[in-house]
Design goal:
Order of helices and strands: HEHEHEHHEEHEHEHEHEEHHHH
Structural class: alpha/beta
CATH architecture of the largest domain: 3-Layer(aba) Sandwich
Number of domains: 2
CATH superfamily of the largest domain: Periplasmic binding protein-like II
Strand content: 15-25%
Number of helices: 13
Radius of gyration: 24 Å
Distance between the termini: 60 Å
CATH topology of the largest domain: D-Maltodextrin-Binding Protein, domain 2
Number of strands: 10
Helix content: 40-55%
């Protein structure tokens, strides 16, 4: 009887051990769903994150090409587990805070506010992908002599016709055209505003289809196409530090994620992102190739 009981305990222990092992394996293979917006920098960040996680035993699942509002909703509703977001976008667009803050204060505020929604802001990178307005340095009579947003606003208020290429989101965002017009005290005539896909604004300006284009500060095409960024002399646009966001529930189950993502974040600054973006948009290399080369060059994955 005693021998039977011991054998039963042994068999039960083996079964439990096997169950624990299987449960652990299942947890390790639970996909980490990575979301992103639809422009080059975001596609690059999603791909770099996917390759980095795969190299460290995770099972990444990319969901790319979303608009800002859709991406945020997906994160809050647990349709995705993580993304790379910009501090200014969360401050103004998601949390409706119009107060101007320093980069450090902006990060601290969104970290505090989004924690209440189950979103953890990890370490911010030094890449500040702020909105900007650009003009051609040469052969652009409509903007000749205009170097600042104040000068641009004055020219438009004075009746000068200046065409403006924007993406779909900018005319409706509080940190976009409505806020810019109110802050600088002017109104851009609707007939002079040309809406198009984000990437096409650069081509439209380069090809002289418009006089001003909405650009992102870390986009490599600014230098490649010989554009001049108009100085935001009154500091309307907030800091947009590129930062990994992860749902707290996911991070609690996968604490290793924080260290991996923070290491990647630490490698990014304005110059680095502009170079990586240009390799895709100007040199026409694939997102996958650029991401893989960068991760290897920074020793984030094995060569």
């Amino acid at each position: 009887m005693i021998k039977k009981f011991c054998r039963l305990l042994t068999a039960t222990g083996v079964a439990l051990a096997a169950l624990v092992t299987l449960t652990g394996a299942a947890t390790a293979q639970t996909p980490i769903v990575i979301g992103s917006k639809g422009f080059t920098e975001q596609l690059l960040m999603a791909e770099m994150t996917s390759q980095l996680l795969a190299a460290n035993g995770f099972k990444p699942d990319k969901r790319t090409g979303m608009g800002s509002a859709v991406l945020r909703q997906a994160l809050e509703s647990a349709q995705i587990d993580m993304c790379w977001e910009y501090t200014g976008t969360s401050l103004i667009t998601y949390n409706k805070i119009s107060e101007r803050m320093s980069p450090a204060d902006t990060y601290a505020k969104v970290k505090e506010l989004d924690a209440k929604k189950g979103i953890v802001w990890l370490n911010p990178s030094k890449a500040n992908n702020t909105y900007a307005l650009a003009v051609r340095k040469k052969d652009n009579p409509a903007t000749a002599g205009i170097d600042t947003l104040s000068q641009l606003a004055a020219a438009i208020k004075g009746g000068k016709a200046i065409t403006f290429a924007v993406n779909a989101e900018f005319p409706g965002r509080p940190d976009g055209l409505p806020g810019l017009e109110q802050f600088y005290g002017f109104k851009w005539p609707l007939d002079d505003i040309k809406r198009m896909d984000t990437g096409l604004t650069y081509q439209a300006l380069r090809d002289k289809q418009v006089d001003v284009a909405l650009v992102f500060a870390t986009d490599g095409r600014i230098a490649a196409f010989d554009f001049q960024v108009l100085r935001d002399d009154k500091d309307f646009f907030p800091p947009y530090a590129l930062t990994p966001n992860v749902r707290k529930e996911v991070l609690d189950k996968n604490p290793k994620l924080a260290d991996l993502l923070n290491k990647l974040s630490a490698k990014l600054d304005d110059q680095t992102m502009a170079h990586l973006n240009a390799m895709v948009d100007v040199d026409k290399k694939s997102v996958e190739e650029v991401a893989a080369d960068f991760l290897r060059s920074q020793q984030l994955v094995a060569k």
